[in-house]
Amino acid sequence: MLLAGDVVEQSDDFYEAYRDLRKGIEELIGAGVSVCGVAGNHDSEVLPYLARAVPDFHLLGAGGKWESMFLKGHDGMEVQIIGWSFPERVVTSNPLTRELPSMGSWVTLGLLHCDRDIPGSRYAPVSSRDLERAPVDAWLLGHIHKPDSIYSPRPAGFLGSILGLDPSETGPHGPWLLEISLNGELDIKHLPLSPLRWEEIHVSVEDLEMPEDVHIRLTRGMDSVYQDLLSEPALPLAVGCRIRLQGRTPFRAELGRLLSSDDPRKAPHYRDETLFFVHDWQLEALPSIDLEELARGDDPASLLAKKILVLQEPSSPERSRLIKEARQQMLQMVSSRNFALLGAEPPDDEKVAEYLTASALRALDDILAQKRGSQ
Amino acid sequence: MRLCSLHIHRLPGIHPGFGLEDIGSRINIITGPNASGKSSILRAFKALLYKEEPAGITAHLEGVFQDGKNKFKAFRIGPNLHWESQDSRGELPEPPDYRFFSCFVITVDELLSPVGTDAEIAERIHRELAGGYNLRKVLESPPFFLKKTHGQEEYKRLTDAQKDLRKKSQEHRGLQSEEAELERLRTNKEEAESAALEANAYRRALDLLGARRNRLAKEKALEEFHEGIERLKGDEMEVLHQLREQRERARTNYDTAQSNRDKAQEELRETGLSETCLDEAVFGDRRRQIQRLQECESSVEKHETALRNAKANLARAVEGLGGERAGNEPKLTPDTLERVEGELEKKRKLEAQARQLDEELSRLPESPPEPDPQKLRSAREALIEWLSAPKAPGWTLSRIGALVVLVLCAALAVGAAAMSLHLGFAILILPLGAAVFLLFRGGKGKVQQWAARERFQRTGLPESEEWKASSVQNALNTLDRKLVAAEHTDTLFSRRKEVHQKREGIRDELSSVLDSLKTLAGQVGFDPTTLDASFERWIRLVQSYDQSKEEFDSAQAAYTNAFHQARELREEIKAFLKQHGESPTEEAPSVNILSDRLELLAKRFNQRSKALREINDKNREIQESDKQIQEIDAKVEEVFNKAGLGVEDENILQQRIAHLPQWNSAREGLQEARGAEIQREQDLGERPDLEELIETDDEATLQKTREELEEKAKSRDQLAHRIAQIETRLERARYGRELEEARAKHQAAEDSLRERLDEALFAKAGSFLLEQVEAEHVSSSRPEILRRAQEWFRSFTRHQFELELDTDREPQFTARETNNNERRSLMELSSGTRMQLLLAVRIAFALEAEKGKATLPVFLDEALTASDPDRFRAVVDSLRMLTEEDGRQMFYLTAQPDEAQLWEGEFPSVSVHRIDLGQVRSTIRAVTEPVNLTMPHPPMLPEPGDLSPEDYAVRIGVSYIDLWSDVRDIHLFYLLRDDLNLLKRLVEIGVDRIGPLLSFLNSETSKEFLSVGERRCLTLRESAAESWLEGLRQGLGRPVDRTVLEDSGMVSPTFIDRVAEQATLVKGDAKELLQGLERGDVKGFRSDKREQLREWFREQGYLDERDALSAPEVQQRMFAAIAAYFENREFAFKTAQFLFRSLTSVLPGGA
Q: Across the strands, what pairs with B337?
């Protein structure tokens, strides 16, 4: 069992997560499984502590020095593991510039926690070129939560977190199974065993006969996800869905109201043994009106439609100006007293455009409703 | 339409009249001192246009107007208005609505204090601006409207969660060092525990030593007592005492029993039944006999009563038959009954006759008739006589008239004679009167009637009310009826007398029959009259008699039987009582007496039984007491024997018993000491080393070693407590999941706050867009009136102000200051600016009001007097433009002749016609000095030439940049230091700062004044300046000074001086000031106040906790702001760098 670092979230978590980790590792060792790992920026203190407490756990590269060890398989084949651990929470230097352990003709696996291709990163920045150059048969990397697509014959990439820690970390998560044949060939396979899985579901709201039918579409969307999951080796215990309602519909405003009052987030349900719940939903659908046609007028609704169209033209200077001006105001909000505490990054252009588009669509719904109300 | 000439022949206030010929077709400047008639021209003009305008009854006005090529003449005489076309071809022009005329007349007063017209204009524009939507409503509704407290609760929750997480994290950190210390603590604790155990062993050894010593001392003390004392129990004397008391009580019982037995034998003798053979059963038999006797006596009494009743019933039956109670029995034989029946038949017949006569008597009157028939007959005759009397002749009308004439003539004759001839003729009145009397007196019939009436009255019968023939006839009829009735009554009364006499005879006869019957009753033994009743009754009476007789006989027999039974029983009982000495004294004693005697005998029998029992009991008691005495004597002897003494050795026994408690105590003490020693030996266990010390009685060594060990063990509890504490915390940390929970809470709070931020950004994006749309809509679809008014106002104020329509509440015009973006209401403007604003609005509206109507001249009545020269020029230029555009005629009325020059100015193409009203009216001229005609000059800027940008900036008076002022206040020099010519052009038209620049770029004029490239350049540079200022401010916080501190309300007067001084020391840096307060630089300033101040600083922007941006970061932002304007990104970056340097280099204190 190889651990690529950041198996504990907090660097000072010596009692809670540490205890769980230690228990698991001791179980593995008790079952005859060798366990080794490298420390990441999050567990730079905890893993050395664990290594001291559990002598059979091998922490590679403690103190920021490359270290190697050999593992012997049931068939007698030996594999060399080289690894480097974070000596402290922040490492701005490239660990691959340091001397690597000597390697022979046997299979060698590199275990490293790092930031790839982010110069100036505070978390052991390395470049893809460095990784390619290193004389190892595989690079098993930690740090980035989203798993890379890793392939044989020379597997290299981020293994990803064992489960999605954040609703934005959608898709499969879990350990990887690396098999080495006697002739030294490597075969790597992702095992999405995460008990919790996040999925973003795009639901079309086009051609709805009535707004209430959206619930049927939501159910179908989740059914589809479930069908896909059935083909995987293991089903998660829970699936958190992020619903994105898209397409054109005349019921935009009604959908917003309907989903607010009959909120799908409040209705988790099981599909066989798997719990499906809606974590959030976003109404990204466009009104069914012809925005281009509406934008030809000069009343407020038309002007708003023009803005929406402008926001849909990525290279338009008008869009840039709009985003820039809006960002100025949003910055004030982000840095206002109540929200400065979050230390949130100012929204980038695309995020600002998203906010503007979504709010413009909502405002368009509202003012068109005024018109309908007055008729 | 223009005014060609005006003649005021008559107008109130104008005398004499005057005329204006040759009025200019464009601008007319009418000068003249006050009261020279300038305003009258306006009044006259209006009166010629509108009939509604009051002009006075004597008004006489004439005017000539031209509309296009047509000329019209207008006359106003008093209220009458007449228009005519001079060439009879053109249609009469229609002026704008009367109520909008004020828009064409602009006076100083109206411009200084806005009137209703302006509000009406504002309202109308507002209506057009609305465009059918209510964007405000959308903006003020969710999700675009945010409460002021939006996110506040989540912020608080996150702050709390942060604190909690920090605390838990610190606890875990602290726990690590404690965990490391735990091993050492455990070792120390083990050592202390060992010492404590050893100290305990020494303590037990010392205890054993003490126990051993005690046991030895007890053994020695016991050896000193007499031998044999161990056989005593100590209670021997008490036992002896008790035995002797028991013996005494037994003796007393013996004696008492003997005495009581003697007394019982005496009582037995006294009953007299000591030798009898009576038993309890005998008394039972005798009591039953007495009870039977009592029943027999009751039966005798009952039969006696029945006999008495039967006897009484028999007597009543005899009495019912009319016999005597105590007399003979009735003789009910057929003979007697026949005799009785004969007498009774007689009686019945007489009684029937008597009843018949009584009945007739009851039908006859008891008294004679009233009145007497004789009297009635007399009265009848009198009335017949009255009616039969002869009648006098009747008084006819002619007869009465002749008599009256005759009498009057006679009276007149007498009167005339008395008066004309002699008074003596008056005596003739007497014979005349007598004659009249005789004439009217009745005849013989009357006398007869009077006699008849008198006779009637004598009968005493009631008289009729009047004596007329009809009344009398009626009375006679009545009287006849009464007479018939009276005569019938008289006949009946006579019959009654006869019947009464016959009834008396029968009564006497009946009386004699009854006497005869009474005599017969005495003979038959019963009342014969009873046979006069019905036969049934008779049978009942006889049956009753028979039954009573039978009952009487039966009762008598029962009574006799009961009486004999009772006598036999009594005799038998009496004999029994007599046998046992209880014989009653009476001959025939009652049952009670017999019973009492029997009970006395029974009592004696009981006393006998009781005495016999008592004798037996006492005999038994005597035997028992004797036996007890013998047993007690034996026990006493045994007590002495047990103590090894004889009965006589009581004194020795007493002495030994006195020493016994001490011996017992000594013996128990020894036993306890032995027990304690054994216990201590067990407690100590196998410790040969200590046993040796005990054997050698080495107390000193034991004591010293124990003290040393106890001292060492003292820290054990503290260590145990400390270890337990750490272990508890470790357990809690391992299993409690507090850190994880705190982290989860923190994450949840952060997520919540992020959601609020997301909502806020959504709302901000929405409100941003909606406000833009609103502004654009206002700008693009604004009514022509507003657009023109805005253009003019912008022009009038040289772009220092923008005209806006405030629609937040009631629509009203406002001005936005371009250099600081502040909005000002009319009242907040200087009088000059206010005038310009209203002037712009009025003219714009006037143009709107006359759409489709005749165009009217505009009158300005000293409207620009209060304006400064620059603005005056701007207004004049605008108005001149107006006249140029549509050939409008304009009148400017002023008392200032120099103002006329301003109208002539730089537009020679527009003719300015000057009319000197003073001259026209042959009054004083307005201009007195040539100096008054001097024209003010617009400001002139130097040419940049070879001047360096910095020198040029100094020359034109560029100000520093205040980092905390609005971006609109930044001078254009900082944006255009590389294009000083453009800078000069802009500053010359009043556009010197970013604020006016934005206003100018928004105007139509700018499109003519600036090229497309220049507009683009200025726009992007302005954007860069905004990004620069925003970036530079990040992380700085506004400077804090005393005023700010006072405004916060968080610093009391006690501290304000010291805190303000501290603020000065840290150069207004809020962060440093707060740190100083935290360090205690201002003694006594409370921490809660400090935190409140921190919050306030954050809210007001004095404390910005974001990281300050570096110069490259600011440049990057500037680049991002302008990048969209460039195709070449490098050029964009260089421009950003240039502007950054330009703006930053002049900051006070440098970059």
A: none
Residue B427: DSSP 8-state: G
Of the candidates A281, A263, A284, A254, the residue with the CA atom closest to the CA atom of residue A360 = A284
Which pLDDT value is given to residue B324? Answer: 60
Contact yes or no for B1144/B976 (Cβ under 8 A): no
CB-CB neighbors (< 8 A) of B133 in chain A: 299-301, 367, 370-371
CB contact under 8 A, B753 and A338: yes
Whether pTM > 0.90 for this model: the answer is no
Chain A CB within 8 Å of residue B726 CB: no
What string of H, E and C letters represents the secondary structure of A315-344?
CCHHHHHHHHHHHHHHHHHHCCHHHHCCCC
Q: In Å, how far is B1097's CA from the nearest CA of chain A?
A: 9
What tokens does A325 get?
């001006």
Mutation for testing the A interface, residue in B137, B178, B757, B1036 having most A CBs under 10 Å: B757
Beta-carbon separation of A371 and B1123 below 8 A:
no
Of B132, B1106, B1124, the CB nearest to A340: B1106
**Which residue carries 């020029």 as its tokens?**
B873
| Chain A residue with Cα closest to B748 | A166
Beta carbons of B833 and B801 less than 8 angstroms apart: yes
Distance CA B446, CA B439 (A): 15
| Residue A16, helix vs strand vs coil | coil
Residues of chain A positioned with their CB less than 8 A from the CB of B173? 12
Per the CB < 8 A criterion, the answer to whether A244 and A282 are in contact is yes
Could you say which residues from 916 to 935 on chain B have a Cβ atom under 8 Å away from some Cβ of chain A? Answer: none
What is the tally of helices (H) and strands (E) in chain B?
37, 13
Per-residue pLDDT tens digits for B911-930: 778 888 877 776 444 444 54
> With an 8 Å Cβ cutoff, are A12 and B1125 in contact?
no
CB within 8 Å: B133 and A329: no
**Of B42-56, B406-420, B702-716, B756-770, the least confident:** B406-420
pLDDT 10s digits, B370-413: 878 888 888 888 888 888 877 766 566 767 777 778 878 788 88
Q: A307, B1123: Cβ pair inside 8 Å? A: no
Please state, in angstroms and rounded to a whole number, the distance separating the CA atoms of residues B950 and B960: 12
The pLDDT of residue A297: 81
Mapped to the 3 state alphabet, what secondary structure does B1099-1131 carry? HHCCCCCCCCCCHHHHHHHHHHHHHHHCCCHHH
DSSP state of A277: E
d(CA B643, CA B631): 19
- Residue B931 reports pLDDT greater than 60: no
**Distance (Å) from the alpha carbon of B884 to chain A's nearest alpha carbon:** 32
β-partners of residue A266 are: none
pLDDT in tens, B515-573: 877 777 766 666 666 666 656 676 777 778 778 888 888 888 888 888 888 888 888 88
Assign A336 a pLDDT band (cuts: 50, 70, 90): confident
Q: Where are the alpha helices (DSSP H) in B272-424?
A: 280-320, 334-363, 373-388, 397-416
d(CA B348, CA B532): 9
- B90-140 pLDDT, tens per residue? 577 888 877 677 778 776 666 666 556 666 666 666 655 656 677 878 888
How far apart (Å, rounded) are the C-alpha atoms in residues B676 and B320?
Answer: 126
Q: Which of B753, B770, B1100 is the best substitution to test chain A (most A C-beta atoms within 10 A)?
A: B770
Q: Which residues of A touch B137 (CB under 8 A)?
A: 370
Task: Quote the pLDDT of residue B763.
Answer: 94
Q: Would an 8 Å CB–CB cutoff place B938 in contact with chain A?
A: no
Report the DSSP pairing between strands A35-37 and A57-59: parallel
CA distance B211 to B224: 21
